[in-house]
Amino acid sequence: MDAPLIEFRNVSRIYGEGEAEVRALDGVSLTIAEGEFVAIMGPSGSGKSTAMNIIGCLDRPSAGDYLFNGVEVGQVSQDARALLRRHYLGFVFQGFNLLSRTSALENVELPMIYKGLPRAERLVRARAALEKVGLAGREAHQPSQLSGGQQQRVAIARALAGDPLVILADEPTGNLDTHRSREIMELLVALNREGITIVMVTHEEDMAEFATRLIVFVDGRVSKDERKAGAA
Length: 232
Hints:
Helix 3 (104-114) crosses helix 4 and helix 3 (104-114) packs parallel to helix 5. The longest helix is centred in the C-terminal third of the chain and has 16 residues, at 178-193. The chain has one domain (6-226): P-loop containing nucleotide triphosphate hydrolases (Rossmann fold, 3-Layer(aba) Sandwich). The protein is 34% helix and 27% strand. It has 232 residues and is of the alpha/beta class. The protein contains seven helices and ten strands. It has helices at 48-55, 78-88, 104-114, 119-132, 148-161, 178-193, 205-208, and strands spanning 6-15, 22-32, 37-41, 63-68, 71-72, 89-93, 166-170, 197-201, 213-218, 221-227. The strands form two sheets. Strands 6-7-8-3-9-10 form a six-stranded mixed sheet, with helices on both faces.
């Protein structure tokens, strides 16, 4: 049997010491298979953001093991984690995180510069990614010339252009109205159907409904883990 794409083995994340100790994660074990669309929910302080940060190699466990594609990466060096982020993970944030005076095309190009790809290849990939998210013809537009939904599409295109195994979406609809939120979720669903694994943190139950699996954290532990009927 193939190894899960993402695996936590009894992962804990502890901040502070003594009376100030906080167990953001407390012995969490879970697996996420390639091709899943997982929504992660939970109240403030439940551990959902900490789990996402560990998956994204932005943080590391205090105890336990984090495996990515069968390889233990939770305790590897900072440089090694940066390489994993660069080559296998795409990030989408609530605040879009676009450079304000830079075109949509250049924003999408940026992560590929860090990967060392030649300019000609960057341009081809960036244009293809913008087309995939429905923004062909908007390549020269700066963020101020785009709606919130279009800015988030640029952010998704930026994540896609690096050809990631996983897209990590942190409250991707948090700054959008209902109509634009549904557009972004339908885009994520379409990308997932093409085979991209998506892990999304959200506080909105109606957005979580678009996922095929729901994981709920409470007090640093998984309190619910359920797949939709018919999901693999």
